Amino acid sequence: MLPQPSLLTERLALRPCSERDVPALVTLAGDPRIAATTGTLPHPYTEAIAHQWLATHAPGWSTGSQAHFAIVDRPRDDLRGVISLRRDGQDTANIGYWIGVPSWGQGLATEACAALIAFGFDHWALSAINGRHLPENPASGRVLLKNGFTLQGRVRALFPIRGGEEELDSYQLTRERWLARLLD
Ligand SMILES: CC(C)(COP(=O)(O)OP(=O)(O)OC[C@H]1O[C@@H](n2cnc3c(N)ncnc32)[C@H](O)[C@@H]1OP(=O)(O)O)[C@@H](O)C(=O)NCCC(=O)NCCS
User: Fold this and answer.
1) What is the model's pLDDT at position 184?
2) Residue 102 class from Cβ within 10 Å (0-12 exposed, 13-18 middle, 19+ buried)?
3) How confident is the model over 70-85, as pLDDT tens digits?
4) Is the CB of 113 under 6 A from ligand 1?
5) Whether the predicted model's global pTM rises above the 0.85 cut
6) Which of 47, 65, 70, 86 is 20–30 Å from 126 (CA)?
């Protein structure tokens, strides 16, 4: 297994998360506005939780089941958020992300998403990437739509942070559509 690469965009680097990110993770992911709509982030978000989460990255990468990237600005390397791919089928994966509140509205999620999509199709040879968000979180839907995803419909799925099932808007980007958009 090759080591996890870093992915560069115009303004950002998507690099493997590290222990040095823990203080910024606790501050940024600890904001209740992040936990409210991500579905997977516990609240309050403590240092211990950050360390436990970081410990899952190496096994997730080596089995090809999960890839988590710190979204940092360049060249400072300040943490702006996190973006992840999680396999949800033989050749499909789900994309998930959050951006720290002080950096909202600058197009960073859209930019990071584009880089991780390319990684998923190029390096994991995925046939499709899925994305989901709560209906009351339209900003996340915009990030997916701006990256070429199409709305598939509304599904019910486990939303751990709320302790049960929730309705989620479900999107998909196929490899064919991604390639066609690149050639456009
Ligand atoms: C969703 C989130 C990742 C967006 O990050 P971001 O870096 O601000 O996103 P971008 O700037 O790339 O794009 C946001 C888009 O949503 C739009 N938007 C923002 N708030 C909106 C709202 N209330 N209704 C509709 N659109 C909205 C913005 O205008 C922008 O679209 P535009 O470029 O067409 O104008 C960020 O708000 C976040 O981390 N939220 C908490 C965690 C979360 O919900 N993660 C996703 C879980 S599915």
Assistant:
1) 86
2) exposed
3) 999 999 999 999 999 9
4) no
5) yes
6) 70
Alpha helices in the chain, H assignment, sequence order: 22-29, 32-38, 47-55, 57-62, 108-123, 138-146, 175-183
- Beta-strand pair 66-73/128-133: unpaired
Amino acid at 92: T
Residue 48 burial (CB < 10 Å; 0-12/13-18/19+)?
exposed
Where along the chain do its domains lie?
7-183
Instruction: State the CATH class of domain 7-183.
Output: alpha beta
pLDDT of 167 strictly over 90: yes
> How confident is residue 142, by pLDDT bands cut at 50, 70 and 90?
very high
Residue 63's CB: how many other CB atoms inside 10 A? 10
pLDDT score for 153: 98
**Ligand 1, from 104, 113, 169: best to mutate by most atoms within 8 Å of Cβ?**
104
Query: What is the pLDDT, as a whole number, of residue 20?
Result: 97
Structure tokens at 24: 């910024």
149 lines ligand 1 (CB under 6 A): no
